[in-house]
From TrEMBL:
Its main location: plastid. The keyword Transit peptide applies. Belongs to the BolA/IbaG family. GO terms for cellular component: chloroplast. GO terms for biological process: iron-sulfur cluster assembly. The keyword Metal-binding does not apply. It comes from Mikania micrantha. This is BolA protein.
Amino acid sequence: MRLFVQTMGSRGANLLLTRASRIKSKLQMVFEAKVLEVEDVSYQHAGHAAVKDNASETHFNVKVVSDKFDGQNLVKRHRMVYDALADELESGLHALSIVAKTPKEAGID
């Protein structure tokens, strides 16, 4: 699936995959993550005013453990994740809860 997303980069082709799958693929590609967890928690926000037309796949918890966070403060790490998912945020992703750690901070160094 990853090859399909990369070679067929149109927005239409990306919609064939779930948002969770796209998020995982993008974060893995950008961060070469040692640990990557993506949890769809949209069901917890159903009916909220910001969720239009009962949209699904709008709220996610992500945990990324990567060497690329080494030397970066928390704000910069979050900005890096937001930048990696910019197109998702523009197309319906409403909220992210982010845990971004180095392998050493996660105890897997």
